[in-house]
Amino acid sequence: MEQFVNWIIEYGYYCVMQYGYIGIFVLLLLGVFGLPVPDEILLAFAGYLIFKGDLQFIPTLASACVGAMCGISLSYGLGHTAGIYLIEKYGAHINLTRDRMDNVHHWYRRMGRWVLLFGYFLPGFRHLTALVAGSSNLQLPIFAVFAYSGALLWTGTYISLGYFVGEQWATISGEIHNQMVIVGGVLIVLSILYYLVWQRRQQKTSS
To answer: Which of 152, 174, 166 is nearest to 50 (CA)?
Structure first.
């Protein structure tokens, strides 16, 4: 597994060095969509290349941000199509009815939008936010405002980090990434537990 991760990172470095802004765009699109791309580390690496003068800040930020926007839009579209279809066909088997999805939708309108905004900073967690937003039928304009703002905030933060720490980019970004993986995993587990408790309460209320 470790060799696979190292290969992914090395291939990411190669793409950025070889294809520049196009490589950054493609990697961020795939990474945010859910493929195993070390997004934060590559963003910090791009910031380091700006520090060295190999890349320019505005094109780098634009490439990364648009890539992230496209990736999360694909996830939203997948949730909006396949997610709704699966819920309607199989949701009853796990007590996930349209009424309950409507409750999720109402919650997303109140609070879930902030999850879209800050979910980028949690590896693994950000891949789920757009899927849930799409499957809960969150309106596209609301999704776009918060998801795209989050993309700009997230990419700008890590690119700036790589630029300002310079030669220390690998150590610092790697440590932050590992900590965020742990936090993201914990939040996913807590979210599942919250859903199970909420589902049980709904069953008691309806019975």
So the answer is: 166
- Between CA 187 and CA 26 the distance in angstroms is 28
Q: How far apart are CA 16 and CA 71, in angstroms?
A: 17
How far is CA 29 from its chain centroid?
10
Length of the chain equals 207
Residue that the structure tokens 């980019």 belong to: 169
> Is the CB of residue 181 less than 8 Å from the CB of residue 124?
yes
Helix, strand, coil percentages in the chain from 3-state DSSP, rounded to 5: 90, 0, 10
How far are the Cα atoms of 50, 53, 200 from residue 10, in angstroms, in the given order?
Answer: 19, 21, 46
Q: pLDDT (tens digit, 0 to 9) for every residue of the chain, 207 residues total?
A: 445 445 556 766 777 888 889 999 999 999 898 887 778 888 988 888 898 888 899 999 999 999 999 999 998 998 888 766 565 554 454 455 566 666 666 666 666 677 888 888 877 777 778 888 887 778 889 889 999 999 999 999 989 988 888 777 666 666 666 666 666 666 666 666 766 666 666 666 655
The Cα 179–Cα 156 span in angstroms is 19
pTM: 0.75
Structural domain of 193 = 2-206
Question: CA gyration radius for the chain?
Answer: 19
Domain count, the chain: 1
How far, in whole angstroms, is CA 150 from its chain's centroid?
Answer: 9
